[in-house]
Amino acid sequence: MQEKGNISIHTENIFPIIKKFLYSDNEIFLRELVSNAVDATQKLKRLSSLGEFNGDTDGLQVEIKVDADRKTITISDQGIGMTAEEIKKYINQVAFSGATEFMEKFKEAKDAKEIIGKFGLGFYSAFMVADKVEINTLSYQQGAQPARWICDGSTEFEITDGDRATRGTEITLYINEESEEFLEESKLRGILNKYCQFLPVPIKFGTRTEREPDGEDEEGKPKFKEVTVDDIINNTAPIWTKAPGELSDEDYLNFYRELYPFSEEPLFWIHLNVDYPFNLTGVLYFPKIKNELELQRNKIKLFSRQVFITDEVKDIVPEFLMLLHGVIDSPDIPLNVSRSFLQADGNVKKINNYVTRKVADKLSELFKTDRKSFEEKWADIGLFVKYGMISEEKFYDKAKDFVLLENVNKEFFTLEEYHNKTKDLQTDKEGNVVYLYSNDPARQHSFIQGAEKRGYDVLLMNSPLDNHFIGQMESKLEKVRMKRVDADVVDKLIEKEEKIESILSEDQSKMVKDLFDKAINKPMMDVEVTGLSPDELPVTVTMDEFMRRMKEMAKTGGGMMNFYGSMPDKYKVSVNGNHKLIQLMLNSKDEATQQQLARQAFDLALLSQGMLTGADLTEFVNRSVALIGQN
């Protein structure tokens, strides 16, 4: 038998299009060809289960061989094979899926949808790396004759009698000069590990040596010998293909180590398993993220029937869960012809919503069943929860019941618990409950101490997302205001009806303000003299809560926030008119001494905020030494 002809296509110059546009990465040729071989093998198994094939199906595998001398790569299987007529139908009609007819024939059979069987453009990815491709195949059908198909990358092909003696298909790629890197065994192994690590049929790539018991030596100690075995590079039954009831915690941990061998062990995991209204399985792990938002991304691997597709899953997984690790496998995810990019589809949104709900349900369950453990993990969990609440309204609705607020004393509260804790003492004269917080307890210690003397509680808000989370809390919680503990003197953070009056007269207040203005001599420092408790510091330097928050958000937000980020820093210098130091200044008749005391008090305020540096710090130290010497 010999036949020549033209491949049936509907677009001129299909091969340049395949090479340059349909596929984003030429290494996926191996994924496509191995996947097709696996499909052919699974079809045979399916036919056997349906009674359509009575031959042996034990030990089926796909094998990849490379011959650097001949410059060939060969992918062979023991699947259903093809007749010459099927080659014409499935291979020569570009983009025709061999699965279509197969599925139609067996559509009433249970689980027939599990068969991929995509010949067509997937097969033609071979010409991205090969000058010539040869198929040598023998169909499973009784009495079938072997057939050979050869094509040099043009639209012309040749079919002749083949010489394959066993059922299945062997595809040989004659690698072109530009693609000889694929003749390196290490290169192919890397691609196979990336795309074929979890295919459901054993994939053989060469051999390896193993040690096996070989009796005992003269002293009765066990002996071993080295044996050569097939090198099967894949795990055919990864845990996401199994029911959760079949798996132990150690199974999940071992799989995580297999995926991420150099990572710390995860906090916990979620097993996904749904078959309506879409098919999806997978396992998502919560890693230890150490307050990092960017470094951990692209750790979720997307599969389609155990074939790796991509780790770019931003449409499948909500943005806030991109920090998770693990795998998602779904045959219902719409892909373009190269299987490399997701396409807009209703199922994508449904899957996105499902994953969000499952994560929220898991977190809620953990909180309710073991709150102590939940609190212990909060440093890692909190970033996910806050990110989700900020970015997903549906997630917020669920998470508001288990999100935790932590105070500087390492105590945890739900939103409701914290409101009940603070509402009596921390309600201002306008009826707002004021939540005080610190983003740096060590630096803001004196302010925290001042608040705690009043009986106030101070939250810890130091994660990368807390500026945004604080804004959301104010918008969602009725009559709640958030103020950083160093945003003002404590009595003005939560203003009450009763007010401490300054003992200074109007003229004395003006005199003190003038003294400090001259001593400080910095236009960004706005001095005000106010009445505070005599126990408070003589001078406090603060930045307005709104302005400081806008500036901090500008560092990460961009857009309109940049307006605030470009504005110069301005601070309020609150002088406590009731402090004895102010009286000492007023009683002194020496203006130089007054200026010195004013500057010293101001520098102490800066020092408490970590704002005294450089020449100003040196001057402060020298001045302090001089003052000590005077006494």
Automatic annotation (TrEMBL):
Read off the Pfam families from this record.
HATPase_c_3, HSP90
Q: Which residues are listed for ATP binding in this entry?
A: 32, 36, 77, 82, 97-98, 169, 339
**UniProt-listed Gene3D superfamilies:** 3.30.230.80, 3.40.50.11260, Heat shock protein 90, C-terminal domain, Histidine kinase-like ATPase, C-terminal domain
UniProt superkingdom? Bacteria
Q: Which UniProt keywords apply?
A: ATP-binding, Chaperone, Cytoplasm, Nucleotide-binding, Stress response
Recorded GO terms, molecular function? ATP binding; ATP hydrolysis activity; ATP-dependent protein folding chaperone; unfolded protein binding
The answer to whether the entry has keyword Ligase is no
Q: Which family does it belong to?
A: Belongs to the heat shock protein 90 family.
Report the NCBIfam families cross-referenced here: PRK05218.1 (NF003555)
- Report what the protein is called: Chaperone protein HtpG
Q: What is the organism lineage in this UniProt record?
A: Bacteria, Pseudomonadati, Bacteroidota, Chitinophagia, Chitinophagales
